[in-house]
Amino acid sequence: MQAMCWVITVIAVNLYLVVFTPYWPITVLILTWLAFDWKTPERGGRRFTCVRQWCLWKQYCDYFPLKLLKTHDLSPSLNYIVACHPHGIMSHSWFGHFATEMSGFSKTFPGMTPYILTLGAFFWVPFLREYVMSIGACSVSQSSIDFLLTRRGTGNMLMVVVGGLAECKYGLPGSTTLFLKSRTGLVRTALQHGVALIPAYSFGETELYNQYIFTPGGFINRFQKWFQSMVHIYPCAFYGRGFTENSLGFLPYARPITTIVGKPLPLPKIENPSKKTVAKYHAIYVDALRQLFDQYKTKFGFSEAQELVVT
């Protein structure tokens, strides 16, 4: 939704420049650059270490605060796909850990390069696309993933927040529900390239915002479901804190988040896996994710009886 707002804004500004002002050459330059640079987000992007190391990100990571832990070392001679859960509302932990260097990524995973894979719509917008690429983000398209796994050497970690925007409706305090049952594409891709799939879970990501839950079957609830069926985005009514401590707003609550990056799950290389094969390894991955969650859940406020719910 953020990307769509940017797209609409940029279109409106450029139409204004063309129709009502003499500054139409600006629009021409922007469109020319977009045409020339269109494929870059699918060819490894254009990161700048200086942007990833902005001192602002230190304040960002300390605000919650964020903590990154690993259960196993990773080899720089291999590539990996990291499946990140949960999405929450804004995926703050995944941004802080893998789009910046301020939570200690390079020290935790020496020799590895993180690539955050995100919606292609972010790369349609001038200036925003430059910023998004500068922090190490690339398109989540199939061609982008194929390029990173075959033509960028080794030591790459592809970070995918699997649940996506469809999982936002489960971004409630205390929630352990994931939108994962139908998300088999990542498993298929990992099989096609023979790369290990790594489960990762952020304890605390769903604690950052509250949501207003509308009456099931009511007008607003029906609108939410209709909207989701049309654009695959669930328009949840979320809120957090304001600029003062006890006010309401859209800032996340300052609550600690610990991200656990689990054990790599080796997968065989199968260039054209069948649906049955994909389903088999998807089930194996879900079991590995459940084990990771169960191993650490009591350390982060969940009871022993709490289970990971996969929908």
UniProtKB/TrEMBL annotation:
It is a multi-pass membrane protein. One of its GO terms (cellular component) is endoplasmic reticulum membrane. It is found in: Endoplasmic reticulum membrane. InterPro entries: DAGAT. CDD domains: LPLAT_MGAT-like. The keyword Transferase applies. Belongs to the diacylglycerol acyltransferase family. This is Acyltransferase. It comes from Cervus elaphus hippelaphus.
